[in-house]
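Weekly modeling sync, notes
Attendees: AB, CL, MP (scribe)

Item 1: holo prediction request
CL wants a bound-state model with magnesium ion before deciding which constructs to order. AB pointed out that an apo prediction alone won't tell us much about the pocket. Agreed to run with the ligand included and paste results into these notes for async review.

Input as submitted:
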Amino acid sequence: LIVSCPESVQLSVSEGLSVAVVQEKELLCKEFLSRPKQLLIDGKWVNSVSGKTFETLNPATEEVLCRVAEGGKEDVDKAVKAARRAFETGPWRKMSTAERARIMLRLADLIEKHADELAQIETLDNGKPINESRYVDVPQTVETFRYYAGWATKLEGETINANTNFFTDTLREPVGVVGQIIPWNFPMLMLAWKWGPALAAGNCVVLKPAEQTPLSALRIGELALEAGFPDGVINIITGFGADSAGEAISHHMDIDKVAFTGEDKTGKLIVQASTSNLKRVSLELGGKAPNIVFADADIDAAVKGAITGIFFNQGQVCCAGSRLFLEKNIHDEFMTKLTERIGKMRQGEGMDEKTHIGPQVSKEQQERILNYIGIAKGEGAKLACGGEAPAEMKKGYFVKPTVFTGVNNDMRIAQEEVFGPVLAVIPFGTMDEVAEQANKTTFGLSGAVWTRDVKKAHKFASHIKAGTIWVNCYNVFDPAVPFGGYKMSGYGRELGKHSIELYTNIKSVWVNMMD
Ligand code: NAP
Ligand code: MG
């Protein structure tokens, strides 16, 4: 299954993509929203030790959706204790890997069964268009659990013929108790990327969702209990990162590994904190991807790809194609087509079926993006469209789809992660020029090349220092295909068999065979 096709989700819906239209008038998650939102520790829903709670908002309306338990250090301690006990002495490690796989498959089935409700929860909490939640986030979450359920029964060690005096083999073992800290841009999908390989390998997890988007994790936590995960195998601590639950996880002496997705600055803090007990760390951080269009490309396809690349999920995507390199002789034609297509995008509440682009996740992010727009103007970039919050939206954290032309790769707008619907267009003359500029960034998460020349495509695929390269496509994902960063975009690979490496240890066993 290759989902993604966010471009078709975004723009073709209005052009008649045959999707089963579900009426959003019925609020399937109403009952969930009205229930108390507690922490999941040791198989039970409990209040935080402090009793504190915090609000989560609908970024399209600025209304409070509900209050959620605010977990802190003491709650993390409780969760880690439960996870440790579940790992060392609970039924999780003793059960067959087939049974472990079945529990994961049951969770996937339950998520699928409640797909529309979960899509609404994600859209209300994050703001993303309902068609993206429904056709990207939820199905990719389901497929990720199914893919990793398949791995549970396929983990193997090896025998090594090193020395006939010894029988030598390796055991692949789970690392133990795993802390997982995730961001708000793909709340349930990031949960699946983290839980899938960790659980398949037999670990026990303590997850901290982002403060802006705690809800889908809590609903999936309910479904996980229904699926039959033993007590303590999965724990969810909603709350804050700095000086709170997130920091408690990264410093914890009894957590064996921490997996983090988010900002590079936070990633550095996580690495520093990990020195407490030298826990293993994997990081998936930001990006400033080059999206390179050569004159010999299918221009219409590349225009759609540029839109998918930067406006999918309101630009809140770590692998967003935020630097669009256009070969000079197609620049003007490309820009005409691009701005015309952007003009057709409908901005509005995510819950509206017709919405292509929703609000940013929070006021803080909206302000950050508007600030970057000001910086770009100050640097002399030329505004081609957007550049402000839409005046017609009286409420919500919206930013119009924005494109700057005449950008120079050294400008801040081309070097810093905006994490919003802001595209920097950089014209180029020669292959050498674009080859040099593409890698002139501290990040290295992804990149794309649009060309009909196979040789050029391969040359750039090997030249660009990034973990994922798309050729004549953008934002395509599959749970079987690894994803992760070069340079300051992080280390470790998620998805595919590579993620299993993050969550397992190899042990060598020597048996003396000498008489
Ligand atoms: P962030 O601070 O890195 O947040 C990611 C996660 O880390 C959240 O769960 C957060 O908790 C937690 N966290 C924050 N400080 C922590 C600490 N000191 N120790 C442990 N955990 C901590 O990112 P953000 O503030 O949400 O967004 C800021 C910028 O980061 C964005 O504008 C964007 O540039 C980038 N970002 C990148 C990605 C990505 O996928 N690469 C995703 C999100 C954001 P709380 O949020 O609950 O405090
Ligand atoms: Mg929210």
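Recorded for review: The first helix runs from residue 6 to 12.
Action items: CL to compare against the apo run; MP to circulate these notes.
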